[in-house]
Design goal:
Layout lengths: L1 H11 L4 E2 L2 H8 L12 E3 L4 H14 L3 E4 L18 E4 L6 E5 L4 E5 L4 H10 L2 E2 L12 H6 L7 H4 L6 E7 L5 E4 L12 H5 L8 E8 L1 E2 L3 E9 L2 H15 L3 E8 H10 L13 E9 L3 H17 L5 E4 L3 H12 L1 H8 L2 E2 L2 E3 L5 H15 L4 E7 L4 E7 L13 H14 L24 H14 L12
Parallel strand pairs: 2-4, 3-4
Antiparallel strand pairs: 1-2, 5-6, 6-10, 7-11, 8-9, 8-10, 12-14, 12-15, 13-14, 13-18, 16-19, 17-19, 18-19
Length: 468
């Protein structure tokens, strides 16, 4: 291993090959502080050619590679195991924005670019890059693509996969595939791009991407609606989609308990209603006509929902500051839940039409097995993605969850499967769900995935122990 580290230092410079514990520690601890891995080194190449050189050295010395972006993942996808055999390959130094084409509406960026910087660069060019999620100030484009990140605007613009036209990838053999084509139509064989997006670094290392840009909307309008049930939320979603069509950018569902936690732990973020309700929906329109048009569309939809008994109260933001206050209620849910104590997280997706029935059925089953459990239900209802998290009973300390978390997860995941859903919507599988997925994917599907992995990475050097 000493020879391998020395060769890496010659390839990319000694200062970019980290081996001291104090230097490597931030790269080995997962975001939630649950697991610390070990590595022979952390390498920080600055170019695609340097990434390829490191991968070739890993082949020569038989060293596994764990690619890492901003280390914001939630399923241990970018953390090595504890053997210390792997090298962590951090792409944080690859942060160049290579090109912006405002006629083709594309931006070519390197994998280490922080998402927020990409958003701002697009805005500076009077364009929109719509991917938006809680970790946007620290997550990287490479990580977003490797996990096919979703976020709050999937309803209108799609996941990361839909926002990417082309990739540059270093293969497990250290070759460079330049697929940085800004084409919306390219029907010339297998779509290699889609193999790498969502593969969590198990098939190759994404080093750059061509991203789609969009015209900036002329107006955005946000509203918070109070509801009695998830079924009412689905009725509201259908109504607003019918009334507002493609202007509906976001539709977030939040249980009353979620916002109770936010108000408890962030008292500077008050609920805008005098009476608490069981559920809330946060809606956002992005309009390309005018502020007045957006307001008329949203107000008309909310009024109709009132008349039909779907919405029982609602507030609409009339300024950017008010919109940010409403979004703060949604964005602070994970922080408030963490402040409340330990929790069991589930990132799931379901057919939108079945979400209300899933919530009712799963909640009943959990209460039968563990009376007093407190589901923390929120997520992107418009695209079927729920964060169905579980807090301990109010009478128990947060240590109560630890011996029960596997059984709780089994109840939730089995219910997801019965309702034709997925146990990972936007976080990926990593190592946390690698074995769990075997319960729900068919043997044929797993065989196909393993065949692809074996064909592209026969030595199993790319992020071993993740996904398959």
């Amino acid at each position: 291993m000493t020879d391998f580290v020395a060769a890496c230092r010659r390839a990319i410079g000694a200062q970019h090959v980290l081996t001291e514990e104090a230097d490597t520690a931030p790269y080995l601890l997962d975001r939630r502080g649950r697991f610390t891995g070990a590595a022979c080194a952390v390498v920080r190449p600055a170019s695609t050619e340097e990434v390829a050189a490191i991968v070739r050295l890993c082949n020569e010395f038989d060293v596994p590679i764990v690619p890492q972006g901003g280390n914001t993942g939630l399923v241990l996808g970018g953390i090595p195991d504890r053997s210390g055999k792997a090298v962590v390959l951090s792409l944080q130094r690859m942060e160049c924005i290579r090109a912006i084409d405002t006629v083709n509406n594309t931006m070519t960026v390197e994998a280490g670019c922080i998402l927020q910087r990409v958003q701002q660069t697009a805005a500076d060019a009077r364009r929109l890059f719509p991917l938006s999620l809680a970790a946007e100030g620290s997550c990287t484009i490479g990580g977003n693509l490797s996990s096919n990140a979703g976020g709050t605007a999937v309803l209108r613009y799609g996941n990361s996969r839909e926002l990417c036209l082309g990739l540059e990838v270093v293969t497990p053999q250290g070759e460079i595939w330049n697929g940085l084509r800004g084409l919306r139509k390219d029907n010339t064989g297998y779509d290699l791009r889609d193999l790498y997006i969502g593969a969590e670094g198990t098939l190759g290392i994404i080093t750059a991407a061509v991203l789609k840009l969009f015209p900036q909307p002329k107006a955005q309008r946000t509203a918070l609606a109070a509801l009695h049930s998830p079924a009412d939320a689905l009725r509201l979603l259908t109504l607003v989609q019918r009334q507002c069509d493609a202007t509906l950018t976001g539709f977030e569902l939040m249980s009353g308990f979620c916002l109770e936690l936010v108000v408890r732990h962030f008292p500077q973020t008050p609920l805008p209603f005098n009476t608490p309700y069981p559920y809330y929906a946060l809606l956002e329109l992005s309009d390309h006509e005018s502020e007045m048009h957006a307001a008329e569309l949203l107000d008309a939809a909310i009024d109709q929902a009132h008349e039909q008994g779907i919405v029982h109260d609602a507030v609409t933001a009339h300024s950017l500051a008010q919109s940010q206050q409403l979004w703060a209620l949604r964005e602070r849910i994970p922080l408030a839940q963490a402040a409340e104590g330990r929790n069991v997280k589930h990132d799931i997706s379901l057919p939108i039409s079945r979400i209300a029935d899933f919530i009712d059925a799963t909640g009943s089953e959990l209460q039968q097995s563990y009376p007093g459990l407190r589901p923390v239900i929120f997520g992107h209802l418009g695209d079927g993605n729920l964060h169905y998290n579980i807090a301990q009973p109010a009478s128990e300390s947060d240590t109560w969850l630890l011996p029960h978390q596997d059984a709780i997860t089994r109840i939730v995941h089995d219910s997801v499967h019965r309702f034709d859903g997925s146990i990972s919507a936007e976080h990926g599988l990593g190592s946390m769900k690698r074995d769990e997925i075997l319960r729900y994917k068919s043997p044929v599907e797993m065989k196909l995935m393993r065949t692809i992995k074996q064909a592209l990475d026969p030595r199993n050097l790319m992020n071993p122990g993740k996904v398959v």
